[in-house]
Fold:
Amino acid sequence: MTDAPDPAPGGQPRFAAVLSLPARQTDVPPGIDPGEFRLALLEDTYEVVAGLELVTSALVLDPPDQPDAEAVTWPGTPIVRESTLAGAFAALHALGAGAAALVAPDAPDLPPLLLGKLFRALGSAPSAACQADGATGPDGLVALAARLPLPEWLDTALQGVDLDTPDALARLRAAAPRPGLVPQGPAWHRLRTTADLRLLDPGLEGWENTRALLEGHPLNS
Structure:
């Protein structure tokens, strides 16, 4: 991370924030504590965001009191306490962001390049999305980026949509006043069930905390 983030459109900094939300994970491999698993996913996802060049990392908490989640962040990381995507974007704008990406907390092996593509898409559109492609197909979003402040149509749409909404991308596109305002970057996976673990690539660098916790557990089970 750098002290001088690359300007977003309008000359303001870019922020990328990981959401620490109640876990949707329905099951974990036997012998793994669900709370530890959630934190491992969160920490690895945060490390992806914190390692982005020319972007300021942040953490969004809902519920607001999560000392275990705050403990995985680097010193000085902005902490936002908001329960909606619209509220999180507004809080990041108040911190000085001219553009921001909100990232799901269960994408520990997310390639930084995908977030870079979302930010680049904001040069020609007010928002851009990375759809979640799980073991059973598309399901919600991995990340959503937007120029700030949000346009009114997007702010309104995000009052009833979050990254877990299965048809989030379709809803946002339906709310847009014309086509092309929510371009889609390459899809990626989130880890929300044990079936999703088979999507992890042991040869891919990163996701060290998740990797250590899963040691001895076959990913294709």
